Each structure stands twice: as structure tokens, then as C-alpha cells.
Amino acid sequence: MNRLRDRLAENARGEIGQASAVAREVLDCPGQLDALVALLADDDATVVAHAAHAAMQVALDRPDLFQGRAAHLISLLARPGPWERGEQLPKILARLDLEKGEASRLAKILLGKLDERSTIAAASALSALVELACTGRIEPAVARRAHSRALASPRKALAARARRLAQKVRDLG
User: Fold this and answer.
1) Which of 67, 124, 131, 142 lies in disulfide reach of 94, CB 3.0 to 4.6 Å?
2) How many domains does the structure of the chain reveal?
3) Any idea what the Cα angle at residue 119 is, between residues 113 and 125, rounded to 5°?
4) What is the extent of the structural domain holding 121?
5) Is residue 9 part of a domain?
6) Residue 5, number of CB atoms within 10 A of its CB
7) 119-134 and 140-151 helices cross at what angle (nearest 10)?
8) What is the DSSP annotation of 42-109?
């Protein structure tokens, strides 16, 4: 894990750094996923940011690798921390087969994330709520309320994300 951590500590937090290379390495050797997930709780915000980006890249290709880790990822999302974790974990979690209790807990956390200081994290939370509703894992009314809140937000980027999701929300019925 130290080698992985050292690589993810490289470069500035706002840069991708070694995240893509680490993601490729984890995809080639899935046994390293536990070490990557552990770094999502690191004390260094740069490590967490890069680990979150790497984890998302892994999830794009192999969301199945995260099955069985949903409860842990939900717990990490609930904790305060770098906005990158709040941006990427909802995207990962929305791709997983969640148990009803997990989906419900996740929805509550995501609703709270709509008030997150980071507009990017708030927008990711909204997108995940809509995805959870579209796939029947949460009640559509939850996503509709979140969508209405986001549409009325003074944060332009969050309101813009809500406008982009409007058709999906209408399709919820």
C-alpha cells in the first residue's frame, strides 16, 4: 500500500497525477483494490483526491470489483473530507447492486450532499439520486424532490446539472 500511496501523493491535488496509471494497475491486478479503497480514507487530501479518481476509473470498466464494498464506500461518503471523494463515490455507488437498506442510507447521505460546499460534489450527488431512482433502487419522489431543490439552487452549476437531468426526472413518472 505504501508504494501505491506514494504514487498517489505525487503531483498537485487538482491534477490527475498517477490516478490513471494506478487504475490500470488495479484493473490488471484486482487484488490491489483493497489498498486503493483504504487510501480513500488517507489523511492527505491529495492522496484521497487521486485515489478517488483512480477508483472511479476502475469502476467505469469493472464496477463488479466494488460489489461487497458498498457499505464501506457509503460510510466513507458520509464522512467529511476532500470534495473529490464526494464527487467520485456517488458515481461508483450508483453503478453497484445495492441492498435496499444500503440504497436508502445512500439516498439520505446524497440528499445531505446537495448542500455540500463543493458544487461538483453536490452535482454528483444529484446525478446519483436520479440514477438510483431510474433503476428502481429508491423511490422516484426522493429524486424529484432533490431535483426541484437543485433547480432552485442559486449555484449555477448545480441548477445546470438539474436542467440536464430534467428529462430523466420527467421519465420517472
Assistant:
1) 131
2) 1
3) 35
4) 99-173
5) no
6) 17
7) 150
8) -S-HHHHHHHHHHHHHHHHH-GGGGTT-HHHHHHHHHS---HHHHHHHHHHHTTS---HHHHHHHHHH
Does residue 141 lie in a domain region? yes
Residue 27 counted as domain residue: no
Summarised one tens digit per residue, pLDDT across range 61-93 is 999 999 999 999 999 999 999 999 999 999 999
Cell, residue 86:
464526494
CA distance 55 to 38: 11
Q: At 141, is the pLDDT very low, low, confident or very high (cuts 50, 70, 90)?
A: very high
What region, left, alpha or beta, does residue 17 occupy, with left being phi > 0 and alpha being psi -120 to 50 degrees? Answer: left
C-alpha atoms less than 13 angstroms from C-alpha of 49 in its C-beta half-sphere: 16
**pTM: predicted TM-score of the whole model, two decimal places:** 0.92
